[in-house]
Amino acid sequence: MPKYQLSKLAKKNLIEIARYGDKNYGIHKSDQYRDKLKRQFEILAEQPYLFQGAGHIREGYRRCVCGAHSIYYRIEDDGVEIMAIIGQQDITKFA
Question: For the whole model, what pTM was predicted?
Fold first, then answer.
């Protein structure tokens, strides 16, 4: 079964998403949103070529939109590595 792993940056992004969501939308809605992201990670691992390439951002990267965030990932031998989870307001953090 294909798997996914999170880069250090992606882990940091998830923590920031959690803090922002907890503060602005409440813990329950914030948890629901993170669950949605995690389900999307599983889909990426199962069907990594389903989403468009993002080589203009970084060589070998692909991009998937989930809710208010773009998930940048790359395909590995045994699944995918989630490289970053960037909200529209945070795009400069990725550069």
Answer: 0.87
